[in-house]
Amino acid sequence: METAVKQSPAPAERPPAAAYRNLVVATIGFGLTFWAWNLIAPLSGDYKERLGLSSFEQSLLVAVPVLVGSLGRIAAGAFTDKYGARLMFPLVSALTVIPVLLLIPARNSYGAMLVVGFLLGLGGTTFAIGIPLVNSWFPPSDRGLALGVFGMGMGGVALSGYFTPRIAKHGDNLPFLVVAAALVVYAALAAVLISDHPDRKVPTASLAHRLGEAGRLRITWELSALYAIGFGGIVAFGVYLPTYLKTWYDLSPTDAGTKAAGFALVTVVFRPIGGWLSDHMHPALVTSAALGLAALMAIVQAFDPQLSPGGTIALLCMAAGLGTSSGSIFALVSQVTPQPKVGSVTGIVGAMGGLGGFVPPLIMGAIYSAKGSYSIGFMLLSDLALAGCVYAYGRMRNIRRTTGEAEPAAPGR
User: Fold this and answer.
1) Rounded to two decimals, what is the model's pTM?
2) Which residues, including other chains, have CB under 8 Å from residue 87's CB and lie 6 or more apart?
């Protein structure tokens, strides 16, 4: 008589060594290109004085790379679905060298700086290249944390805020030469070390068709709205916080850059925490709590507390909330987006997040020019964060957790 053999459960899938290698290399590249993307902001006070800019003109100069880098993610994500990160990461990194070096001859002309800032936006597109790469190498149970670790590359903003003005003290052109050299070295290493997953599905449809499919998913725009608040807040404060601290609290450019770097560092640390939490509970719940904290701290800052300790605590807690939400939102992307569409959806969601960072610096600059206060700007941020908090809890927590290969259970088309 045959006896039935009880099979033991299969061991949990573990990422291969190549997954960790790609994660590390992609994160470093993300950080370097984000440093390049944010080269103008830490030096914006110098440009304002040299070129005689108004607060709005200074804000526009800082915001242009954010706009272009954000919109460029749409194409970068779709091209990554088609051609893979092994080609796209070193290519974009190498091309970013060009606008970085062009900042040297353009520094005495506002018009030229706007043009170069437009080109510099290329550095902000690597986010949409790294997300599908990391997503493809890690199993669903580890994706939240892995994507959060990759998201730490946005610490390039903190590196730029801290090191760029200090390097500039040793030579006006030195920051651009240092970053350009680092990008050249990285592009060469990335061409060797980055590899696409062997089972990567290459889409056969056209770019327009793939973007159209991603755009017809309801979840794409829901995630875009949340990411525009979370990551948009990070980008906005990353590029505008030095100006805010220098103008409102009368800090020196170096001190303002240092404190802004601290804000960015907190967002970097809390992004993988948001991803890790999302591996253990529904990402929408994490997002809701994080945006609620950001809304509360924005209200506190709207009342113009003293920088030490009230303002510092409020800004750092706000950074923690925004960083956590950024990690949890992309954990949700990985759960509800089919793998072949991750690049396209990431491009759109990432673009909306970047656009969320483009508008606030302009609004803050315009409000300060008109009213001599930043309070209205912080209250607007609190309203948006509160709206995201309510929507994430009320609607997004009902979306079924998936393996990342299926459509969301809730109506999405």
Assistant:
1) 0.73
2) none
